[in-house]
Design a protein that fits this description.
The chain is an alpha/beta fold. 38% of the residues lie in helices and 19% in strands. The chain binds flavin-adenine dinucleotide.
Length: 535
């Protein structure tokens, strides 16, 4: 039994940033996780053939490098060896079934130069410029607890830069789907083809509300920050964090599965599991889903019944599959421009991606899945042997418990068994090979992580959902994790962080950082008293 100022449960990016910020504020901290290394959905492994290093889960760091945790700890992480590889040229592309390619470069002008409709060039530039003009307000809202008075600050920043009409426009955008938003503004197909598939990375579909807000956020963030990957693989990100946490005196306790939050006098006082109990004098932060927090980690009576009920209603989004492929040579793209693009989508834009999402939501394996093709070795060749290549394929339109195949070919009667996993991975590889003739001859090994394995790896991945809960509008922003509140919970000294809380999934680490920042930043009256004391 050990005692700390704070215990942080869950060592994903939010647990890490919380622990680091608390320790920097002078608190003693234990960071607890059931895996044998920190990171959660951050890891790198030789999953196919020795010499091929794959980012098992997350890989792209635009959200991290634009977030507050990076602003605070970036110099320390770089001092401990973190190096990014990024693109200055080709950024992302979409190849449609008929082989048409829409290509975005870091440079906005180079991107719009490829647009067929002259009017779309100005519309695209103004989408990026408008976000740039209001980035401080929008970024502020995505990095703050919306249930606190501090949320008024970014709102007033946004009101000052956008005006009342601008604020109202943003509210409308947040109620609009990405497909509808782009259809209203662009005559040609390029913007939709490029950015509709990116909505999947926010847990949305092209027809989900809030896409109208998120399309410009995705596009502007990526043009601005690129698609950084960690040189030498995501494991080096963790190595740098481990050194920073060590320097700050954080105690890392891996291999500890927490079964309950310890309560004393109704307030959180630690966490406990099989054979261990860790005490916290000042705060317990849990990076879990609301379902786990209120359903099993806390006694049912610890929180008001409406909170427990709302937590039980918190629902997962679609499931995901990850496929890693080792290739003996470069990807033989039919359109050779794609060879230099770090991240390519196979999609027809909103049309095919929305249908694939609808099929998955209906329990069917999509006929024409959107395939996310990551080519990290284009940015960081150290991950593959000389002359080799590797593919990081992500599928985000899958049912956790399939009951049919939209193509009527694969047998789903036994769920995700080996035959179905291989059959579906085959469909994905065929789809890719249609744009890269000869691809199959270059394959040295394939590693597939099916939805059941995603869920088994991380209890936050409810039903194989990589984003810890549906990110539809009713479960986002003000309403994430629950309508009843933000990061503060009804249990004194217990704080909720992680992808299931605002601002949601991704590697920004914002929820952990902002809660820890709030806990370690003296209140305004205290600051005033301290100043008076000094005078
Ligand atoms: C395949 C995949 C690809 C992705 N790609 C990207 C990407 O490229 N860029 C990006 O920005 N985002 C990406 N994401 C999303 C991003 O990785 C996640 O949103 C983010 O890592 C979640 O961080 P988190 O802090 O919520 O914690 P998690 O990463 O979910 O980690 C939580 C940790 O807590 C542990 N834990 C939970 N309950 C307990 C318990 N009771 N006891 C002990 N330990 C417990 C879990 O085991 C886990 O280790 C991807 C996600 C997946 C799955």
């Amino acid at each position: 039994m050990a005692t700390f100022d704070a215990v942080v449960l869950g060592a994903g990016i939010n647990g890490i940033t919380a622990a680091a910020r608390l320790a920097k504020g002078g608190w003693s901290v234990a960071l607890v996780d059931d895996h044998d290394r920190i990171g959660g959905f951050i890891a790198a492994e030789e999953r196919t053939v020795p010499g091929y290093l794959h980012d098992t889960w997350s890989s792209w760091h635009p959200l991290f490098v634009t977030g507050s945790a990076y602003a605070a700890f970036g110099p320390d992480l770089h001092r401990h060896g973190l190096t990014y590889a990024n693109t200055d040229g080709p950024l992302t592309a979409t190849v449609t079934d008929n082989g048409t390619v829409a290509l975005a470069h870091r440079d906005v002008d180079a991107t719009v130069a490829g647009f067929a409709e002259p009017g779309d060039r100005d519309a695209y530039r103004s989408m990026i410029d408008r976000f740039g003009a209001h980035a401080a307000g929008i970024g502020g809202l995505l990095g703050i607890d919306l249930h606190t008075a501090s949320a008024l600050r970014p709102i007033s920043t946004l009101a000052r830069s956008a005006g009342r009409a601008g604020l109202e426009t943003y509210a409308r955008d947040a109620l609009t789907s990405g497909r509808a938003w782009m259809r209203a503004r662009f005559a040609g197909a390029e913007t939709d083809q490029l950015w509709a598939p990116w909505l999947l990375h926010g847990g949305l579909t092209p027809d989900s509300a809030s896409g109208g807000l998120m399309v410009p956020v995705f596009a502007a963030t990526m043009h601005g920050a690129g698609l950084p990957v960690v040189v030498g693989g995501a494991g080096n990100f963790l190595t740098a964090w481990e050194a920073v946490l060590d320097e700050l005196g954080v105690t890392i306790l891996t291999g500890h599965k927490v079964q309950r939050v310890v309560l004393r006098g109704g307030a959180a006082a630690g966490v406990a599991g099989d054979g261990f109990e860790i005490h916290a004098e000042r705060a317990v932060l849990t990076s879990t889903t609301p379902n786990a927090l209120y359903g099993s980690l806390l006694p049912k009576t610890a929180a008001p019944s409406e909170v427990v009920t709302a937590a039980a209603h918190y629902r997962p989004g679609r499931a995901a599959m990850q496929i890693h492929v080792a290739l003996s040579g470069p990807v033989p793209w039919a359109d050779t421009r794609l060879a230099g693009v770090p991240l390519v989508h196979l999609s027809d834009g909103s049309s095919s991606t929305a249908i694939a999402c609808a099929e998955a939501e209906a329990g069917l394996l999509p006929r024409r899945p959107t395939v996310v093709v990551g080519q990290q070795h284009v940015l960081d060749p150290t991950r593959v042997p000389d002359g080799g290549a590797a593919l990081w394929l992500q599928l985000q339109e899958l049912p956790f418990a399939p009951y049919g195949d939209a193509r009527g070919e694969l047998d789903t009667a036994d769920g995700w068994d080996r035959k179905l996993i291989e059959g579906y991975a085959g469909r994905v590889l065929d789809r890719l090979a249609a744009h890269a003739p000869g691809l199959r001859d270059l394959i040295r090994a394939v590693d597939v992580i099916d939805p059941i394995s995603v869920a088994a790896y991380n209890p936050n991945a409810l039903c194989g959902d990589p984003y810890a809960g549906s990110a539809e509008l009713d479960q986002s922003f003000w309403w994430r994790p629950l309508p009843a509140g933000g990061h503060a919970t009804p249990v004194p000294r217990l704080w909720h962080i992680g992808a299931a809380t605002h601002p949601g999934p991704g590697l920004g680490g914002a929820s952990g950082y902002l809660v820890a920042d709030r806990l370690t930043t003296p209140s305004r009256p205290r600051r005033l008293l301290a100043r008076l004391g000094r005078a």
